Amino acid sequence: MAAGLGLAIVSAPSEPAYAGPDTSGNNAEVEVLIQSVFEAEYPKKQYVEALEKLQLASEVCQQGSCSAKVRAKVLVAVATVLAGGLDQKKDAIEVFRIALKEDAKVDLLKGFDKGPILDAWNSAHGGKPIGPSEEPRKKYPGGMKAPKGWKSAEAFFYSEEATKAKADKKWALCAGYADDSLAVETRSSTRYLKAQCLDGGNKWLEAKVEYDALSKDSGDIGKKSQDRAAEISEKAPKISFRKPTNAEELVVSIDDVQVADDQLGNDTVVNPGPRRIRASGKVNGQKLVFDREFTLQPGESKQIDIQLVPQTDVAKDNRVLKCLEESKSREELAECIGQGQGRPVNVKIGVELSGYHDDDNTDVISPAISLVVDSPTGGWTLGGSFLVDVVTTASTDIIATASPRWTETRYVPAIFGRKKFGDFAVGLSAGASIEPDYLSLAAGANASADLLDKRVTPSLAYGFGYDIQGRSGTSFDAFSTVILQNSVDAGVSIVADKSTVVTVSSTAVFQTGDTSKPYRYVPLFSEDVVAQIPPGLVREEVDRVRSQVRALEQLPTERYRFAIAGRVAHRLESQTLRIDERLYIDNWGLKASTTDAMFLIDVDRVRFWPHVRFHAQTGTDFWQIAYPVVQDAGEIVLPNYRTGDRELGPFIAAYGGGGVKVHLGAERNFALAFVGDVVYTRYLNHLFILERLGFFGALGAEVEIE
Questions:
Q1: Is the CATH number of domain 153-235 1.25.40?
Q2: CATH value of 346-705 in 3.60.130.10, 1.10.3720.10, 2.40.160.40, 3.40.50.2000
Q3: CA pair distance 241, 306, nearest whole angstrom
Q4: Cross-strand pairs, 580
């Protein structure tokens, strides 16, 4: 992505040399700036910052205040950074060629004339000739006789020159000669030749005008013209615009041709290739502008979000906004932000304090901190987080087992890393969860690929977990069980259109080991009482009718879980609608559905969103509201599987709430966020409790620094 920054420095064409005022006013200053880059930033491998400095030098030169020789030297410096620092040989060659256009005698910088820099320099010299793309058109020499079938020798001469230019793929020259010929003598064959030349030069709209006129002719030319006109209508690129909110006197143009106001929200057909979009308008009385270039491919439809900025910010913001517009993944977006601010490494620090409370006497406080470091130019990301859960509870289940209120602390460290290799990316992660009676260790690997111009991104991940479950106050050597877990996730993200992304994923988890809780005693009842136990029977009544036999929870020692999930995210003018659905089933017989919806609204520096979720599930095959115990001749027979875990029974839950995030600071690199939800759960076939009302909230802050 840094190469894009380098090319942006030289994207503005320089004026042709001419005799005029002295332009050497800032030569010395610019040369000192170039020297400082290769004494400071370049040796420290701060290549993006080096390009930022050179961009400043380039801006000075583009204002006509330095000579062509120095302008060329700036460009050589840019290409040196691209080739020697960023390994962007192709882009370096292009910049070297532009430098040679400025000054054919320019040379490499002293001390930077070896290795990949020299290779790129030699390629620039040995590449295609540097000069005008089309030579001047020849003039009719006169004295010729018109060949048979032609009325004018001059028209025939220009037609022949157009045919030669077409063979050499000099499309502008070809169309110009064809025009010269038609000006003297009108012929369908010449007009068809002109249409082909315009077509070959990506002047599709102009070519279609000619094809449409020729399609009325009889014969082969008419049929071919009709077919090509229809093909252009189908494949010509289209642009539509998302207008800024609260903008007045908005004027939008494509290649300096104004777009009608009533056309801004509709598709506008344009030629393929580079297009320049300009816009101006007023927001709160201040005049703002938009100036961008896009390259459109045949068949492409592009919606352009017009983001007006102050006139003085165009040179700086234009580069960054263009990069953002062309990004097609979360990683590229981060690269653009880093590039635009001139940071080779971005650091993001986040802190959060979340809490939960419900009417079943359970409270949770969870402070957390995270750190993410990524390199836009290196294509890598490293991160880590640390969370602490402090849980205190005197829930109905706890009290039912004659346990007092207890407090427990859990520590959750995690690290991860990711590296991009072109269109492919791989990642590794590891984490742990540490409690007084439970230790969980996990590791994973993932990979993804950007396909079809980054419109389709498949991904695959594997995870392994090793858990040790024990008793609080007892060493794992004295008592523990081991639980192993293997998981596989496969998914694909698809850019359905310019505003919609669809993601589909599947997960399989294979767990072995005894997950039964060593403290959880399950109430047992005589066979004649079981059928009379109603849902929600309170603790005092349960104690009155339960058996005196005490039995610990016992679950199956193998559990296989499967889930499929889908997400649709659709971007509106300044809002995003996101809908998630997840379906789940396992070999214990539990089936579940979770639906989640969020509507994100952006207003300047503020993003806020309402949020709803609905979850419904059946119980496991062995779930019962009351388990029977059989006592026969002194022998006690217990159910093979038994549990009091409410999460394994049938229930429904509804969530409602939302959040807000505010970006602060001149560069919007500091943000505060608050999220809150109300959670209502209805238990359908459980002891002790029929419903629960809970509240969740989180307050977070994040900052991006160098």
A1: yes
A2: 2.40.160.40
A3: 7
A4: 567, 596
Q: Which residue has the higher pLDDT, 13 or 581?
A: 581
Residue 332 has pLDDT above 60, yes or no: no
pLDDT at res. 594:
98
C-alpha 620: how far from chain center: 39
- Is the pLDDT at 703 greater than 90? The verdict is yes
Half-sphere exposure of 669 (CA within 13 A, CB side): 16
Evaluate the CA torsion angle 568, 569, 573, 575 in order and state its sign: positive
Residue type present at position 553 = E
Q: Which residues are CB-contacts of 411 (< 8 A; sequence separation ≥ 6)?
A: 386, 387, 388, 432, 433, 434, 435
pLDDT digits (tens, 9 = 90+) for 408-418: 999 999 999 99
DSSP track, 290-331? EEEEEEE-TT-EEEEE---EEGGGHHHHHHHHHHHHH--SHH
Q: Scan for tokens 């492919």, then name that residue.
A: 424
Strands (E), 587-666: 591-603, 606-617, 627-628, 630-632, 635-637, 651-664
Secondary structure, 3-state, 184-242: HCCCHHHHHHHHHHHHHCCCHHHHHHHHHHHCCCCCHHHHHHHHHHHHHHHHCCEEEEE
Q: Is the per-residue pLDDT at 641 higher than 70?
A: yes
Closest alpha carbon to 281 in 313, 249, 312: 249
Give the per-residue pLDDT at 104: 76
Asked whether 342 and 49 are in contact (CB, 8 A), the reply is yes
What CATH architecture applies to the domain 238-326?
Answer: Sandwich (2.60)
pLDDT at residue number 22:
39
Which ranges in the chain are annotated with CATH 1.25.40?
2-126, 153-235
CA 192 to chain centre: 45
CA distance 450 to 459: 9
Looking at residue 17, its pLDDT comes to: 34
- pLDDT tier for residue 230 given thresholds of 50, 70 and 90: very high
Q: Give CA torsion, residues 258, 263, 269, 275, to 10 deg.
A: 40
**What does the buried/exposed string (b/e) look like for 342-358 if buried means 16 or more CB atoms within 10 Å of the residue's CB?**
bbbebebebebebebeb
Residues 30, 12: Cα–Cα separation, whole Å: 18
By DSSP bridging, strand 627-628 and strand 558-571 are: unpaired
Those residues with Cβ within 8 angstroms of residue 159's Cβ, 6 or more apart along the chain or in another chain: 177, 178, 181, 187, 189, 190, 193
User: Residue 506 above 60 pLDDT?
Assistant: yes
Listed residue (109, 83, 104) closest to 95, CA to CA: 83
- pLDDT band for position 41 (cuts 50, 70, 90): confident
The CATH code belonging to domain 2-126 is: 1.25.40
Distances (CA, A) of 655 to 355, 449, 652, 678: 15, 35, 10, 6
Contacts of 392 (CB under 8 A, 6+ apart): 362, 363, 364, 405, 406, 407, 408
> Can you tell me the distance from the alpha carbon of 284 to that of 302, in angstroms, rounded to the nearest whole number?
29
Distance CA 33, CA 649 (A): 71
pLDDT above 50: residue 669: yes
CB atoms within 10 A of CB 675: 18
Question: Can you tell me which residue has the tokens 């370096």?
Answer: 92
| Non-local CB neighbours of 421 within 8 Å, separated by 6+ positions | 379
Exposure b/e, 639-667, CB count within 10 A at least 16 = b: bebbbbbbebbbbebebebbbebebeeee
Task: Please state, in angstroms and rounded to a whole number, the distance separating the CA atoms of residues 324 and 680.
Answer: 40
**Per-residue pLDDT, 533:** 94
% pLDDT > 70, the chain = 86
Q: Which of 50-59, 163-172, 611-620, 659-668 shows the highest mean pLDDT? A: 611-620
92, 76 contact by CB (below 8 A): no
pLDDT, tens only, 271-304: 988 887 888 888 877 788 887 777 888 888 888 8
The angle subtended at Cα 281 by Cα 280 and Cα 285, nearest 5°, is: 140
